[in-house]
User: Which sequence fits this backbone?
């Protein structure tokens, strides 16, 4: 079956600024690493361009006033009402082409959804996507347009039942907000607790409202959570809920900032652990849309998303990185010794696991679909 990959190279001309932690060039490095492993060509791979979403598509979630302000900001200059919409801040700068950047990322994710709907692909990956913090009328957390929400709306309009799983270190608040009152989308976010990390949300008592009660699920982790904590969250919460919900399409946000060494977050997943989670998603054999997300340690990001794409293709990649890519990466100050890095891990601390168990117990009390798997 065909798998689709959005080619991010047309996005590399955009730049958040030299002091901003969001580095667009990571997309090019990741794509070139995929190329070096032979993962961008073949009969089972279709490459999609990052086309610009149109305003009608974006209006499914964003307000007209916000989109107009973002469009006017495309020149990189200050315009009225920017600050009211979260624009022009340190987190959400306006730069030359900011509107086009945001809409091209969104168009890529929407087109991935369309490939799944049409049955032309069994899975699709937009590594530039995953901008899960953007709100209807406000940019937030480096995210200007919420490509994930727009892609999910495309799936809903086609009558699909959607499950969304977010493993970024930060809570997927924008996606939760969009679907907090509906049972047509199950949102699950595993993230560093909002007590210690932006956006300060994603606690276990945020479970949805009205028809959506029980369909928003949050698993906050203390800093230092390692692979065993993520496995426990998957085994006891994520997989049982997906089995009970039985989605038509799985959407995953594969932020790489939960990996050990990220300068913004404080979790401690290994690259091998990240790969195992993606392999678990693939084993579900559900039509699957994956997007990228956070990640500010560039060597981690490019390796994680290459491992993810390899897993989506059913490939077990050699741990030895092709020499040509290493030379290319060195020009960006990126130096790595192997694809997966150090695979041996200590267990999470007792405090991390005890906090996680309390969160799981709380969820079990509020989510009837969650069985006792302890």
Assistant:
């Amino acid at each position: 079956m065909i798998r689709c990959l959005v080619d991010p190279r047309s996005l590399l001309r955009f730049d958040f600024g030299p002091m901003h932690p969001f580095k667009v060039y990571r997309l090019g490095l990741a794509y070139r690493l995929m190329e070096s492993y032979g993962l961008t060509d073949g009969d089972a791979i279709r490459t999609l361009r990052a086309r610009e979403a149109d305003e009608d598509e974006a209006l499914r979630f964003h307000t007209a006033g916000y989109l107009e302000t973002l469009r006017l900001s495309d020149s990189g200059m200050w315009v009225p009402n920017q600050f009211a919409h979260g624009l022009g801040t340190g987190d959400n700068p306006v730069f030359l082409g900011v509107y086009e950047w945001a809409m091209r990322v969104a168009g890529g994710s929407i087109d991935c959804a369309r490939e799944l709907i049409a049955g032309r692909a069994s899975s699709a990956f937009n590594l530039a996507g995953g901008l899960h913090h953007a709100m209807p009328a406000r940019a937030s957390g480096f995210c200007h347009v919420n490509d994930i929400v727009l892609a999910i709306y495309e799936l809903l309009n086609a009558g699909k039942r959607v499950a969304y799983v977010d493993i970024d270190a930060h809570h997927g608040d924008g996606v939760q907000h969009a679907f907090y009152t509906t049972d047509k989308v199950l949102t699950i976010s595993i993230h560093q607790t909002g007590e210690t990390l932006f956006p300060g949300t994603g606690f276990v008592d945020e479970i949805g409202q009205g028809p959506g009660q029980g369909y928003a699920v949050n698993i906050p982790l203390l800093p230092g959570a390692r692979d065993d904590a993520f496995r426990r969250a998957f085994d006891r919460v994520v997989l049982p809920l997906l089995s009970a919900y039985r989605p038509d399409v799985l959407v995953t946000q594969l932020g790489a900032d939960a990996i050990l060494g990220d300068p913004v977050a404080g979790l401690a997943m290994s690259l091998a652990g990240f790969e195992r989670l993606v392999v678990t998603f693939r084993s579900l054999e559900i039509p699957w849309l994956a997007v990228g997300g956070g990640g500010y340690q560039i060597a981690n990001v490019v390796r994680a998303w290459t491992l993810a794409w390899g897993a989506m293709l059913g490939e077990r990649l050699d741990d030895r990185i092709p020499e040509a890519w290493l030379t290319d990466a060195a020009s960006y100050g990126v130096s790595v010794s192997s694809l997966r890095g150090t695979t041996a891990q200590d267990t999470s601390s007792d405090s991390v696991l005890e906090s996680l168990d309390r969160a799981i117990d709380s969820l079990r009390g509020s989510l009837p679909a969650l069985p006792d798997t302890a």
